[in-house]
Every structure is written in structure tokens, then in C-alpha cells.
Amino acid sequence: MANEIELKFLFWVGTFMMLALAVTLILITLLYHKRVYSMREKEAENLLKATLEVEQKERRRIASDFHDGVNGDLNAITNYISLLYTKEEDSFKQSLLQEVKHTLDHTKENIQMISYNLMPPLLDTLGLIAVLKDFFVKYRKWSKIFVEDQYLQEYITLTQTEAYELYRIIQELFNNMFKHGKISQVNFAMSESEQIVKVTISDDGTFFDFHQHLKSSKGIGLKSITTRLKQIGAHLEQLQAEKGNTIILTLKKAS
């Protein structure tokens, strides 16, 4: 009888130890996979961050090459065409030269637009608000969307990185609204209070759940926004609504 009780005791102790070992192995496996996922996520984030830093430098370099190099060469060609036009007496050849000049002028405008989109020249000299005002003027023209922009201050002092990343975030949000939102009007407001910069963007389009789409998005657009936000320590909040979108960006300025 004693042996039978002892065997049962050993059986249950052994069973408990096996269960404990199995649970421990499962927990270790789960923790391992969680750690690997976290490391991969961190590596992806660091890679995207490094990519954005390289992108900023390359945008600045290419914009400068376009403005100083290609645009300068086109200006020289335009001057040659103008000179030939004044010396040409044949009306047919004059019309051809005039057409070439118009084409060159149009090409220069396109290059200036590309250069501006790559790196707005006003960002370093006049600041973010001046660049945003200029951006909205151009945005109204090519998108045909009414944008009302308001600023409580005429100038906000930001670091070069803060100004650049915040501009790219706003630009990407507007491009995303134009692509998915089916909007006709946008209200934009920017203010600064106690070292906190606040940006509010409201539209009348289809509701677009930023955070939900971020989870399922395979593109780089939304992910780049979150990385840029982390880069400057900013926060994005989207207010819930049945129609339209309201996004609030807050940035605590670097001291």
C-alpha cells in the first residue's frame, strides 16, 4: 500500500515537473520570438532613420545640382537662342527659335519645381512658415483644393532637422489626403506656445484611419511619417470622426 502511494506521488510529481518544463519551454520560445521581433523592428527603424538622413543630404545635393548646374546651362542655351533670334531674318526660322525658347522656359520651370520639392530653398533662410506658405500656394494650383492656412506667429525658431522633418511630415500628410481623401477643402493652423509647436490639419474628405492603415500598409509613406516623428520627438493624434479628418501634430522644441 505504501509503495502504491509512493508511486502515485512520484507520478504526480513527475507529471507536474514535465508540465512545468513544457510551460517554461513555451515561455522561453515566446520570449525569444518576441525579442527577435523587437530586434528586427528596431533594426528596420534604425535603417529607415539612416535612410531618411541620407535622403535629406541627397535631396539637398541634387536640388543644388539642378539649380546651379542644369538650370544654369539651360539659361545659357536660352540666351544663345535669343541671340540667334535677333540675328535671324527668316520668319520661319524665327518661329522655330521662338518655339525652342518657349520649350526651354517650360523645362526650366519644371526643373525649378523639382528642385523646390527636393529641398525648399527658403527653409534655411526664411524658416518653416515661409516654406509652408509657398507650398500651399503651389498646392492650391496643382491640386485645385482650397487650403486655408493660419499662423499665430510669423516666425517659429526650429532647428534645421526639426524644420525639415516637420515640413516633410506635413507634405506627406497632404499628399496622402489628396490621394485617398477625396477632399475639397483643408484648414491648416500652426502655433507656438511655451516651446510647444502645434499643427492642426482638418479636411472634409473620407475618413482615413491613420494608425489602422499604418499597421497594414506595405508602402514607405506612412512609415516614414512615424519615423520622422520619432526623429524630432513629435506626436501625431487623430481625432475620431464619421466624416472628414482632423490630425494634430505636437512638437516640443529642442532646448
In summary, what is this structure?
The chain is α+β, with helices and mostly antiparallel strands and 255 residues long.
Structural features, described:
This protein has seven helices and five strands. A five-stranded mixed sheet has the order 1-2-3-5-4. 68% of the residues lie in helices and 15% in strands. With 255 residues, it is of the alpha+beta class. The mean pLDDT is 78. It has helices at 2-87, 91-118, 122-125, 128-143, 160-180, 210-216, 221-232; strands at 146-151, 185-193, 196-203, 234-239, 245-252. It has two domains: 2-118, Helix Hairpins (Orthogonal Bundle), CATH 1.10.287; 122-252, 2-Layer Sandwich (Heat Shock Protein 90), CATH 3.30.565. The radius of gyration is 29 Å and the shape is elongated.
SS element count, helices: 7
For the residues shown, what is the average pLDDT?
78
What is the terminal-to-terminal distance? 80 Å
Q: Strand arrangement, largest sheet?
A: 1-2-3-5-4
User: What's the CATH first level of the largest domain?
Assistant: Alpha Beta
Percent of residues in helices comes to 55-70%
Summed up, the domain count is 2
Order of helices and strands: HHHHEHEEHHEE
The CATH topology of the largest domain turns out to be: Heat Shock Protein 90
The largest sheet, given as strand count, sense and whether it forms a barrel, is: 5 strands, mixed
Name the CATH superfamily assignment of the largest domain: Histidine kinase-like ATPase, C-terminal domain
Portion in strands = 5-15%
**Could you tell me the number of beta strands?**
5
Structural class: alpha+beta
Radius of gyration: 29 Å
